[in-house]
């Protein structure tokens, strides 16, 4: 029997001090900060205490966000206007070069496909499952099954789906699920789902949809449960059929949630990277912005191009974020 | 790290009762401590590497902390940029290493290794392969041979096929197999994020053998255009192997792009044979071992080097190897590299199989576990013109574009001119200073 060999020396010497620092010192420092700062605040005149205290409390958070989010963001934006060594200002040069490169059109088209299909399909499937599962006794088990892919990393998902899309020569029995069905049930020719440019983008997006539907379903289902039963009852008593109830009552009441889930999914679609990286590495016309950015940064070591791509992605996300915030405020003000 | 950390660390040691068991143990000339290695090995390969490391740890007391990643380029660059490099890196490709070496992020080994001993034990080619701008940057421990054609001797003798000695013989064998109704080749290009590389091996082997080492060196150094006659000729020569639309390859172009490189040899062993020849590096035997039923070396498969395309370059081989380099100068790292250069260390992995061929000349031929690896070790010994994998020597974006070009080429060979023109465009930007 193999004996578990524990290298205590390495374990202890490398990790423990850091671990203790994180577990003990960080909370200690935070408590110290709050207590200490409050002592100082109390020394101020009574009237200004109320206006100073919130800033003291939120200060550390602002500092962290500033250091790990705002500073790199500004740095990236600045870098996108310089050449790859970061020394010469080139204005919009990086952007014009990127956007006039023939290959970028396919990348943008693929991002558009992701942007339209991924949130759309996730919402449609999520909503459908939430509404239908609400009406059956085995709702819990259905929802558990659909939610399960959420617990799998995108890379593992890609591996699983490789088996689904697996291609073998037509002379051999097909072992990939999809091709086996295609050949044995529909008597068609097997298709190289991942490589064939007619299908591969849809094949990749479908993997994402499979992974995201559970998330949408759970949130939409929660919103559905929040709709008062009396409302639905009243509509039915007034003679509305189920479709009308759904269209006129359920859907409008769920709209704020749908919008929030939808915009989250749009952001997910813009950030999509893993599936494409693992399945095709952007070959066969499946490249997308985030993967292109990765290859500019790590393969080409071209900080300028990578930063410019990051800025393009940022610009694409900003309207979605603004819309999301507005919607959030609108919902809040209605309460 | 401030005082607080040190106090906490001291407290931790007291609390756990771990009272300095490692550091005081330096008696008997042991160095002690730990060496951090970044590499790509997992599974069986990691087991073999562990076996190589065991005597080292026993002799020196240096513990091995090994971190494996399949995305070595990115991880290594991130670690170096963060000021937290591993002590030693075991890299399968050296494109990134050239960039790092020129940026001074790598410790030159000239004064860290025993050069006299290295010169005595290593072929001059293998030391030169580790030099970048005249400085010894990487140490090769094991070689891998590319441009090997694997075949099933039973299938060959059943059809009366002879192992081709020249390129002309290979071409006539190919057309003979086709006229017998068979498929000469299996080609498998799928390798996730690195898809296409097996085809790039074909092209670089043809470039070296067809146009010689000067063209080859200029090519990976970015001084030879992809659209030049020599490089284009190599692609069209490969196109003749594949046949129009991949007609000479089992399963055609769809099979090529969708089959994982490791599974590519399975066609050799099916009955009747789906294909008769499969070009892949020496490491592929470890994948053969995973097939069901497991083929036996010697009876089920044998190997011949890809014949010389041009006899002027006889004995030219594309080789690869495990490159070790120091990314941080520590006594433990120095000791490790010295150890890896010895015949004793290299012998351990050779005996464990997996297609590893020792570079140290003192490793005996009789230590190779089977006839095939023995004959490969002989090919390594007899190699007259050794060149490193051109793709691995190119900047990494050039290499990735090269792989992508392979996938485009096999899908539509008539696009060759456009594909090569695109590669020329990448060449211009990829070789611009790091």
Write the layout of secondary structure elements.
The complex is a heterodimer of chains A (335) and B (434).
Chain A: H1 8-43, H2 46-79, H3 93-100, H4 102-133, H5 139-147, H6 154-165, H7 177-184, H8 200-225, H9 229-237, H10 242-271, H11 274-279, H12 289-299, H13 303-334
Helix pairs in contact in A: 1-2, 4-8, 4-10, 5-8, 6-8, 8-10, 9-10, 10-13, 12-13
Chain B: H1 3-16, E1 34-39, H2 43-60, E2 63-68, H3 72-81, E3 88-91, H4 95-102, H5 115-121, H6 124-129, E4 131-132, E5 135-136, E6 139-145, E7 148-151, H7 153-159, H8 167-179, E8 185-186, H9 197-220, H10 229-242, H11 252-258, H12 266-269, E9 277-279, H13 285-288, E10 302-305, E11 316-326, H14 331-340, H15 343-352, E12 357-358, H16 371-382, E13 385-388, H17 390-393, H18 396-411, H19 416-430
Parallel strand pairs in B: 1-2, 1-3, 8-9, 11-13
Antiparallel strand pairs in B: 3-11, 4-5, 6-11, 6-12, 7-9, 7-10
Taken together, the total number of domains of chain B comes to 2
Radius of gyration of chain A: 26 Å
Main pleated sheet of chain A: none
The number of helical runs of chain A is 13
Order of helices and strands of chain A: HHHHHHHHHHHHH
Oligomeric state, counting identical vs distinct chains:
heterodimer
CATH architecture of the largest domain in chain A: Orthogonal Bundle
């Amino acid at each position: 029997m193999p004996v578990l060999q524990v290298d205590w020396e390495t374990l202890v010497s490398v990790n423990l001090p850091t671990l203790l620092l994180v577990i003990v010192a960080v909370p200690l420092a935070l408590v110290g900060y709050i207590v200490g700062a409050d002592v100082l605040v109390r020394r101020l005149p009574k009237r200004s205490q109320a206006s100073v205290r919130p800033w003291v409390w939120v200060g550390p958070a602002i500092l962290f966000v500033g250091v790990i989010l705002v500073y790199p963001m500004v740095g990236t934006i600045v870098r996108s206007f310089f050449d790859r060594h970061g020394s010469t200002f080139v204005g919009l040069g990086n952007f014009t070069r990127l956007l006039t490169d023939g290959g970028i059109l396919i990348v943008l088209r693929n991002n558009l496909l992701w942007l339209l299909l991924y949130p759309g399909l996730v919402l449609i499937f999520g909503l459908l499952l939430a509404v239908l599962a609400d009406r059956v006794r085995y709702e819990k088990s259905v929802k558990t099954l659909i939610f399960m892919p959420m617990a799998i990393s995108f890379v593992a998902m890609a591996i699983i789906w490789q088996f689904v899309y697996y291609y073998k020569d037509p002379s051999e029995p097909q072992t990939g699920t999809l091709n086996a069905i295609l050949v044995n049930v529909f008597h068609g020719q097997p298709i190289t789902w991942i490589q064939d440019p007619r299908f591969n983008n849809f094949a990749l997006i479908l993997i994402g949809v499979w992974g995201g539907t559970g998330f949408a379903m759970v949130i939409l289902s929660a919103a559905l449960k929040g709709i008062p039963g009396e409302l639905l009852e009243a509509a039915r008593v007034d003679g509305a059929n189920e479709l009308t109830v759904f269209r006129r009552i359920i859907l409008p009441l769920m709209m704020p949630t749908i919008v929030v889930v939808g915009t989250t999914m749009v952001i997910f679609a813009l950030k999509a990277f893993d599936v494409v990286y693992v399945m095709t590495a952007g070959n066969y016309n499946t490249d997308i912005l985030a993967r292109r950015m990765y290859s500019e940064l790590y393969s080409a070591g071209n900080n300028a191009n990578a930063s410019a791509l990051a800025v393009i992605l940022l610009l694409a996300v900003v309207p979605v974020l603004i819309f999301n915030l507005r919607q959030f405020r609108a919902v809040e003000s209605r309460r | 790290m401030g005082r607080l950390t040190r106090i906490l660390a001291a407290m931790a040691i007291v609390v756990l009762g771990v009272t300095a068991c490692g550091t005081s143990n330096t008696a008997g000339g042991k160095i002690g401590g730990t060496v951090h290695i970044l590499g790509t090995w997992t599974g069986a390969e990691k087991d073999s590497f562990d076996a190589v490391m065991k005597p080292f740890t026993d002799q020196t007391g240096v513990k091995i902390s090994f971190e494996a990643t399949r995305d070595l380029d990115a991880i290594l660059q991130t670690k170096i940029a963060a000021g937290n490099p591993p002590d030693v890196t075991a890299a399968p490709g050296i494109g990134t290493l050239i960039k790092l070496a020129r940026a001074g992020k790598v410790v030159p080994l000239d004064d860290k290794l025993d050069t006299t001993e290295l010169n005595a034990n290593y072929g001059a080619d293998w030391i030169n392969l580790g030099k970048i701008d005249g400085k010894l940057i990487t140490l090769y421990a094991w070689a891998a041979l590319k441009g090997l054609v694997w075949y099933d001797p039973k299938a060959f003798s059943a059809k009366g096929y002879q192992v081709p000695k020249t390129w002309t013989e290979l071409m006539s064998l190919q057309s003979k197999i086709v006229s017998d109704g068979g498929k000469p080749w299996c080609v498998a290009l799928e390798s996730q994020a690195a898809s296409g590389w097996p085809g790039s091996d074909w092209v670089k082997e043809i470039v070296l053998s067809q146009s010689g080492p000067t063209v080859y060196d200029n090519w990976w150094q970015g001084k030879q255009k992809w659209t030049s006659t020599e490089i284009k000729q190599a692609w069209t020569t490969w196109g003749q192997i594949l046949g129009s639309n991949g007609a000479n390859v089992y399963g055609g172009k769809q099979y090529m792009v969708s089959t994982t490189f490791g599974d590519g040899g399975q066609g050799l062993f099916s009955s009747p044979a789906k294909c008769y020849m499969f070009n892949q590096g020496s490491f592929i035997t470890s994948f053969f071992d995973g097939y069901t039923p497991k083929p036996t070396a010697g009876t089920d498969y044998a190997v011949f080097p890809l014949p010389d395309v041009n006899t002027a370059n006889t004995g030219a081989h594309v080789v690869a190897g495990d490159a070790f380099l120091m990314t941080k100068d520590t006594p433990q790292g120095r000791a490790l590299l010295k150890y890896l250069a010895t015949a004793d260390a290299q012998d351990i992995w050779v005996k464990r199989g997996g297609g590893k061929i020792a570079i140290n000349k003192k490793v005996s031929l009789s230590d190779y576990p089977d006839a095939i690896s023995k004959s490969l070790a002989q090919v390594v010994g007899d190699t007259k013109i050794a060149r490193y994998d051109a793709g691995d020597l190119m900047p990494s974006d050039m290499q990735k574009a090269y792989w992508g070009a392979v996938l485009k080429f096999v899908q539509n060979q008539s696009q060759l001119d456009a594909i090569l023109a695109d590669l020329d465009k990448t060449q211009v930007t990829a070789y611009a200073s790091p």
